[in-house]
Amino acid sequence: MQIGELARKTGASARALRHYEERGLLVPERSRGGGYRDYTSEDIVRVAQIKTMIDAGLTTAAVKRYIDCARDGDHGMWLELCPNLRAELASLSECLDARQAELYERQQRLHDLTSAG
Questions:
Q1: What DSSP character marks residue 37?
Q2: Tens digits of per-residue pLDDT, 50-71?
Q3: Across the chain, how many H-helices and E-strands are there?
Q4: Residues 63 and 99 in one domain
Q5: 6 touches 18 (CB < 8 A)
Q6: Quick check: pTM over 0.70?
Q7: Taking 80 as the threshold, does the pLDDT of residue 74 lie above it?
Q8: What torsion, rounded to 10 degrees, do the Cα atoms 67, 26, 96, 80 define?
Q9: CATH number of the domain bearing residue 20
Q10: CA angle, corner 58, sides to 56 and 63, nearest 5?
Q11: Residues 16 and 65 grouped into a single domain
């Protein structure tokens, strides 16, 4: 299948698919005649894995390091955790916790400003 069809089947834009390819996350075959990208049904699964990992906050560099840990099952995609991945996810979670606390404090300051008087 070509890039447009993969985009339709996965909900990823053609631009995102090209970006994944540039980052080494997708490696499509090339057609002999025109050099068009040729994707397989496995690429549909791979794009879903990539999108899930990115949506969880991983960078494309981290996705590249850990994409082979991605597994699909009856309950969706999950990651088989190795020590390095576990540490990276814990670090990401800590950053999100800190950001959430910062946003809460900002919200409280806004509340204080609007209720003063």
A1: E
A2: 999 999 889 999 999 998 888 8
A3: 5, 4
A4: no
A5: no
A6: yes
A7: no
A8: -10
A9: 1.10.1660.10
A10: 115
A11: yes
Q: Same domain for 75 and 116?
A: no
Please spell the DSSP secondary structure of 72-117, one letter per residue.
Answer: EETTEEEE---HHHHHHHHHHHHHHHHHHHHHHHHHHHHHHHHH--
The tally of domains found in the chain comes to 2
How far apart (Å, rounded) are the C-alpha atoms in residues 46 and 22? 15
pLDDT band at 117 (very low <50, low <70, confident <90, very high): low
Half-sphere exposure of 63 (CA within 13 A, CB side): 22
Handedness of CA 102, 104, 105, 106 (dihedral sign): positive
Containing structural domain, residue 23 = 1-80
| 53 and 42 fall within a common domain | yes
**Same domain as 42, residue 4:** yes
Residues 28 and 50 grouped into a single domain: yes
pLDDT at 70: 84
Amino acid found at 55: D
Question: Do 36 and 61 belong to one domain?
Answer: yes
